[in-house]
Here is the input.
Amino acid sequence: MIDTMLDRRTFLRYAGIAAGAAAWPAISRAASDTERPPNIVLIFADDLGYGDLGCYGHPLIRTPHLDKMARDGVRLTSFYVGAPVCSPSRASLLTGRYPVRCGMPGNTGPGSDRHLPESEITIADMLKARGYRTMAVGKWHLGHQRPELLPTGRGFDSWYGLPYSNDMRKPWVQTDEPLQLYRDTEPIEHPVNQDTLTERYTDEAVKFIEASDDAPFFLYLAHSMPHLPVRTSERFRGASDGDLYGDVIETIDWSVGRIRRTLEEKGIADNTLVIFTSDNGPWLDLPERMLHEGVERWHGGSPGPLRGAKGTTYEGGFRVPMIACWPGHIPPDTRNAHVATTMDVLPTLAALSGATFPGDRTLDGCDILPLLQGKTESPHEYFYYFRGDHLQAVRHGDWKLRRETPNAEVELFHLGRDPRELYNVAGAHPEVVQHLADRMRDFAREVRRP
Here is the structure.
């Protein structure tokens, strides 16, 4: 059963925004060996696949800055998103909850009235109440119908970016609502020059970091790419052996390098946690509506050794790259295969910042700093794969049970022996099938909204 939602404004008042950050007591692990809690840079790519980075095995795309970040920190190989499509995945990241639990199981966009419920509390709400400066740069996609639904109404001091996906305009989407670039609540550019978008996002992120003072900051950089249509500037076009898609990934890699260099030049790299991940897997098997203005079927990314892609509950839709770097706190050049999720980001940052969270709602994420440090195994006994509001699969250890529809064939995969999900062994393990089917049924009942 869903816990009763606390009014968001009531939470913010209790959290101490009006009275100051000191009104919000710590519940866990604020950084005790520094003068202040760590800065946080959270970089969220769009539709970047598990196999799209050099450090995750791509043979052609060069990502030296992300590869170095992996050497300087930890690379997770069983990291999952909350949903295989854009809006639900972002809702899950920012609230620490499964999308069906936080009221955002499907996408929003032009013409839609769907948005992240105002009763939900975001990472930015939480950190702002602890005295953090907060900024969102890039794609939002959690509601744009009223100013209070934009990032500046959801805990961010400022925002520069797009309200939803970069294809949500004609000819790809049949809408008369223009795609516009925003600063805070005001549109500032139409049509949007997408060729330079990644570089301009990076400029805004760097300016925010350079303006940091004695207060800790939270930067949420949500790139609009490599979601189609992929675009980059003349500076990067043709530079990659991975065609235009590779050019776009290498532009994002350049962006990561520039941000990390800015942290070093500012002298704050050692007290900044940097996280890089993606909202879901690559967009493959494109619908015909996408094949306009130079978009080609091969402009999608790679799930690497995994089966499936964006929009599916196979591993290629849910499992994404995740790199975390925090000098002196996360051991360098480590790899971790234990299960973790984007829903873990909020509880982890709560612990690092000394923040509390209302007890009136269920958090599905956990504090995973000990896991990132190699001190413990996954805190997740089960992970659930939702497509919209339908629960299609569950993972328990190396076992994964999947049933796409109630009438579909039951699939059981052992992800340790068969990460590509090629061999259905349901017939050989009826007891595992029954146990996981029972877990799926019980969890579906738990999160079902009245």
